[in-house]
Amino acid sequence: MDAAIRFEGVVHRYGRTAALDGIDLAIPPGCMAGLIGPDGVGKSTLLGLAAGVTAIQQGEVTALAGDIADPSVRRTVCALVAYMPQGLGRNLYPTLSVAENLHFFGMLFGQSSAERKARIDELLEATGLSDFSGRPVGKLSGGMKQKLGICAALIHDPDLLILDEPTTGIDPLSRRQFWELIARMRRRRPAMSVVVATAYMEEAEQFDWIAAMHGGRVIATGSPAELIRSSGQQSLEGAFTALMPSAESERGQVVPPPQRVVSESKPAIEAHGLTRRFGSFTAVDHVSFSIAKGEIFGFLGSNGSGKTTTMKMLTGLLPASDGEVQLFGRPLDARDIETRKRVGYMSQSFSLYGELTVRQNLLLHGQLFAIPSERLEARIRETIDRFDLAAVADELPESLPLGIRQRLQLAVAVLHRPDILILDEPTSGVDPIARDRFWRLLIELSRADGVTIFLSTHFMNEAERCDRVSLMHDGRVLAIGSPAELKTKRGKSTLEEVFIDVLEGAGARRQADAEPMSVPASARSASRSVDARRMWAYSWRETLEIIRDPARLAFAFLGPVLLLLTFGYGISFDVEHLPFAVFDQDQSAQSRQLIESFQGSRYFTEQSAIASADEMERRLKEGELKIAIEVPSGFGKDLLRGMKPEVAVWLDGAMPFRAETARGYISGLALGYLNDAAMRKSGRDSPAYPFGIEERFRYNQAFRSVNAIVPSVIVLMLVLIPAIMTAIGIVKEKETGSISNFQSTPVRKLEFLLGKQLPYVGIAFASFLTLVMLARVVFDVPLKGSFAMLAAASLVYVVATTGFGLLVSSFVRSQVAAIFATAIIAMIPAVNFSGLLVPVSSLSGGGRLMGLSFPAAWYQPISVGVFAKGLGFAELWFNLAVLGAFGVAFIAAAAVTLRKQGA
Amino acid sequence: MTLDRLFKIFLLGVKELRSLWADPVLIVLIVYTFTFAIYAVATGANFEVENAAVAVVDEDRSMISARLRDALIEPFFKRPVLVNANEIDEVMDAGRFVFVIEIPPKFERDLIAGRRPTVQIDVDATAMSQAGNGASYIQNIITQEVAIAFPDSSSAQPLSLVVRAKFNPNLRSAWFTAVMQVINNVTMLAVILSGAALIREREHGTIEHLLVMPVTPIEIMLAKIWANGLVIVAAATLSLIVVVERLLGVPVAGSLALFVAATVLYQFSVTALGILVATFSTSMAQFGLLVMPMLVMMNLLSGSTTPMESMPGWLQNMMQMSPSTHFVALSQAILYRGADIRIVWPEMVMLSGIASLFFLIAALRFRKSLLNDR
Description:
- The complex is a heterodimer of chains A (903) and B (374).
- By secondary structure, chain A is an alpha/beta fold.
- Chain A has 32 helices and 25 strands.
- Chain A has a 6-stranded mixed beta sheet with strand order 6-7-8-3-9-10, sandwiched between helices.
- The longest helix of chain B has 31 residues, at 173-203.
- Chain B is elongated and about 90 Å long.
- At the A-B interface, helix 10, helix 11, helix 12, helix 20 and strand 24 of A face helix 1, helix 2, helix 3, strand 4 and helix 7 of B.
């Protein structure tokens, strides 16, 4: 094998922009290879292609001598490659513990539990994470997350390790430990190839081989020494700048001019004993500092030491548990709009609107800060120039490289000319050239405009440029002073050494130096068929995540129960207590007799009598009356004379079902009245009709709504809730980035889909059991047929409905769209066309079609059939078969829609 | 409220509209909901006895039994199917027919002889919405046909009872369903759009940025409400005019302007509800699970599907807290009964009250719930 990864003629486009523009590159095997280059030159895309996570558009990519374009080869190669995407712990699961995350990755590679345990113990020991194995990943610091990421990558003894900016956003101590770890791993397995993209030139200097990229092309390759020599520079950082085309290298040391001594005035920012507690955990512990106007103050510290929390308290985003913040000598009031206008804040992650263009974002912020419109336009133009955003002014930030987005964030933060800038790791993930440009802007703001700048950073060369820095660890500030002072005091030559010295002095953990022992390599098989172990890995993980979110689990069970209760009592087609009133213009004994027959009925409730035709009209219009009976004057006389007087009954037709039912009641009552009248007259029972009609209400003799409604509500609940639960499943992984685990490991689509579906099928089935119990116990709905049949059908049904959720989840891009689509697509047919309200046999046209193309309409006859009609398999097998077909079709469609590779 | 604040609310709302516009899936779904979905439900699912599947067991095969069979006509009933007496259980079990009419042997002869023969109607009582009404239809038809065929047999009726339905004389349920479907969809869209938009802002961190700017939570919420509201009210009004009035031919009795005004009020209350639910859920998954049962409840128990009076008292009282109950009552009054503001003002006051309550609670929880998680 002559290359770990080989690219030939690779071109990759995102829309119209070419991220990779003809790459021919062979990365040598068995060494540490680095990719360097400014932001947005295609480093991540290149690594994504090699890992098989991104689909190849043009050209050939071979990893470990296998053609990545071929799915079966890719699957084999996947088992030998480990990929760690950019971003802190993006492919990890925050609610799972450290050990559980590792078990999950081990299971994805089909390892037995004994093997996994041995490997995990070893890896945790080697990375010094053993003491944290039970801690949820979401509560780890950034440095620990990256170490865990490495453990996850190494769990299957890969031959090729692909790391995309693994140390971005990591403090110097953790960074050093991280590289020591990689070095030890390589000593153990010398044949392993490691490919790293990085923005740290001092790191790249330690690599064996480097490829420098620019503009989607490779512009130089070779060892760091060769690159430095050929460019005639002293360091790789110099060589890197020299290699870049001229326009990009406005270079020279960035050294701020000395700070003007401001004799006057109070400090710009002052904190006294600032403390923030989250439950029993103290994130920030009595932090105090005082920052002068125009000062650049560097806020350094280990990951998770409380820097971000402190900054949020300075902006008022988080209330302090204790202590006080003063801005310009006045206590901070989070609700004070005037103070907010004097502060510019840039959060650690991108927090502008991705769906607005760069210019629109600036405009929105300018307007919200109430910059007068006549000045705003000029201000925006000037800002776009100053931050070099002209080329991207009309693009959406989502499509821009991280470095440019950070620039936009800073531009937004300074647009309203604040007196204080609070910047949380503004240069994290930004390439050296862009960082220098960024710093020139900061220095200009500080020195020329007198802006006070409070920023956090992990880059020590940036810290050197600050007027003063503080070092924070475990919620406390351990040292504060100018860089020179700190170095002198600690007797160190660089700020990085000071940093490590201070932290280690504070008891920051040194990692164990033990060489990892060797665990026998696992049998690597990327079997062709669906592997139950990999599927189980996803089921197990999904189940753990559900258990860790008890609120969600509670909603999943309580929602249906609550609905069954309310609907069981609430949805009723038994029309009763209809408010009626009489407009009796006759007031005779005969008219009163007629009215009496209405008064006695439980279907009607009498309201005060009507006095005029206008009143009748008005009260019907108001909806107070549903029925008005108008007895004409002379009714009694006409009746006695046999002149067939006319009685008018007015119904409120606004709700047709109610009116229709009322009409039936009225004719029934009238019939009764006539019989009575005939009897009174003739003294014997003389039926009005020469025949009898006998109605038999089958399956529900009592004609109880609840007997029919409860089985139908179960139909509704078992589609809506399972579908909405699964609909979030896949799209959430897309949004958080953990989908890359599915893309870069040998997991098959079906294993992934079925694995994710299984726990929800379990929950839905358990929910079915509770609902049936409720129906029997609370509502006393008889279960006439075989429970086994109902249970079997329900199982098939929930497989279909969760399958529907999976399908939605695999084609939408955002969780919002998933919720929305599931609600709309499922609710309308399930509520209207499933037989809950209207029997499926009387549906027509589009409605019928909609009903029949959704599983609910097929399950409803089973639920009602088994409950009310006592039917069994012999009568219902066809519906069962159709449900099964729905399940298969949904999952198959989801498998087709789901992309194993990203664009 | 100063002009400056109004301008900020306007700007944030425009931003909201742009976000919506950038999501084609959402647009397609909104259009679908207010066009096809309404049309399909209004024409497909009827509560009135229409196209009811009916079978006849005719053991008489006489003139009168043929007459009865022919009297079951469309659009109320599908053409009756003749079945044998021993097939009744089978066809009813399978749900093929809602009604089976059994005409006994010698029906005609017994009738003439005054022996009072009995016609039996088997009703599938699990089809609740049609069983009762359909059975009384069939009774009426049989009575009428017999009366016509044997004019002397029935005793003359001493009075005539004329039953007329006001506001919807033919009791066409499509009229009802169409409008109620518009209302249900307004509820669904408003709650999901506003709530999910808020959760998305939180998950993407943009809300944090908003809160360090000179913008108050009230302004952010009002912006979301007016922007999402505009889209939904516009869609609902258009849908009412084009789909309901034109396509489905439903006459709208009252003032459309009053209805739109009421919709604005309603939509304020449901978007506020969406935001309120969002402040209670920490993730989109939780939001979905919370919102789904709520929507189904607001949809089915508001009186838009089954009559309010038939619900138990405690549930009627509980549903008074739901804005949908008041909006349904109000829309029925305006759209069918032509009610004006003098009649519907109490409902409008209730709606405003509920809306303000939701808004207030949401505003109180807003900052805390959005920022407290680290």
